[in-house]
Amino acid sequence: MKKIALLGSTGSIGVQVLGVVSRYPELFSIVSLSAGSNAELFREQVKAFRPKVATLKDASAFSRVKENLPTTTTYAVGEDSVLSAIVEEADIVVVAVVGFAGLQCVLKAIEMGKPIALANKESLCCGGELVTRLAKEKNVPIYPVDSEHSAIWQCLDFDKTRECVSLTLTASGGPFWRLTKEEIAGVTKAQALKHPTWNMGAKITIDSATLANKGLEVMEARYLFDIPEDRIEVVIHPESIVHSAVNFADGVTMAQMSYPNMEIPIQLALTAPSRIPTTVKKLDLATLSQLTFYPVPEEKFPCFHLARQALKAGGVLPCAYSVANEAAVFAFLREEIRFSQIPYYISLAMDKISNERADTYQTLLSVKTEAERIVTAAIRGQLCK
């Protein structure tokens, strides 16, 4: 019985983790869970899984449901309450919270010596150097949950230290990669939220539309697999059947293929190297009409190019990129800026933040605060040069 601390239980990944636990109650149990503001779903999850600890970030939302919660669970509420869900009893911590908050969760899990199933991009995109160093010192394994990184992990036979020449990440291309640069400039929020293949949250869907998501995944891959940025390539693969590939010295490329479904990488993060049945149907090669691959048209997707630049520069610039992108995306979702303006605000933050070593959490937190300030002030027309 593997005891799971689930951080981000009401999001898409968290709900699917609970689906795995429900299918295999003899293998897994939920010892703690945390959520943000979806109090109603949080209440149902606590009732169903009876964790030892449960936390909710939104205190006012908690007040709406607290009278109907099991009394056998200990509760915590507030901004940093998620850290209370990283309990000593856990055998693994699933980090599926959104945003920079995931970094603090990962660092706390490492400090406690807990294996991590990682579904939070920011922890490696913002703090890759810090996280990997501390995880190595504490001998804490980090298992990928993203489908692309899970695919690479599988092709490496679940051994992240295995020798290879390069990695190939695949990207669906989102809804706009066939459009011209001029057509992309005029897309609307509604258009950007219609992903052709995956059903995801709003922020990651916009990231997919700008290809920022793929830039962030290059950052993750660089730190997860300890491989230089220039040995990570990206191709557009609209069918989303090949989830990524590994290229070896003898000319062999190994790819992982399946129908697009997050259940496989989520479950593998909990069971690897063992494989157990999922609800995903077997891939039928005979019915696949074609698998196509194209180079990334970087001139149409400056967010992707900026991510590469930030990663090459290193230091705190990947953090500045990740935070500025998040701030700009949420501004776009609030319809404060146009789709085509997202890369402008990312570039602005990267230009204005002085690069330095990303060797402490406080350094990264300061960069986060400054990047958010720059983007917010610029959007409001209040940025001082």
Structural class by secondary-structure content: alpha/beta
The succession of helices and strands, N to C, reads EHEHEHEEHEHEHEHHHHEEEHEHHHH
Q: What is the molecular shape? A: globular
Percent in helix = 40-55%
The low-pLDDT segments are: none
Between the first and last Cα atoms, what is the distance in angstroms? 57 Å
User: Mean of residue pLDDT?
Assistant: 94
Task: Report strand %.
Answer: 5-15%
Rg, Å, rounded? 20 Å
Sheet with the most strands, sense and barrel status: 7 strands, parallel
The quaternary structure here is: single chain
- Number of discrete helical segments: 15
Strand order of the largest sheet: 4-3-2-1-5-6-7
Q: Could you characterize the architecture of this molecule?
A:
- The protein has 385 residues and is of the alpha/beta class.
- 43% of the residues lie in helices and 15% in strands.
- The chain has helices spanning 12-23, 39-49, 59-65, 101-111, 121-138, 147-155, 181-185, 189-192, 202-210, 212-224, 263-271, 302-313, 317-333, 342-352, 361-379, and strands at residues 2-7, 28-35, 53-56, 74-77, 92-95, 116-118, 142-144, 166-171, 232-236, 242-247, 253-257, 294-295.
- The strands form 2 sheets. It has a 7-stranded parallel beta sheet with strand order 4-3-2-1-5-6-7, with helices on both faces. Strands 11-10-8-9-12 form a 5-stranded mixed beta sheet, with helices on one face.
- β5, α4 and β6 (116-118) form a beta-alpha-beta unit.
- It is globular, with a radius of gyration of 20 Å.
- It starts with a strand and ends in a 6-residue tail after the last helix.
- The model has no long low-confidence stretch (mean pLDDT 94).
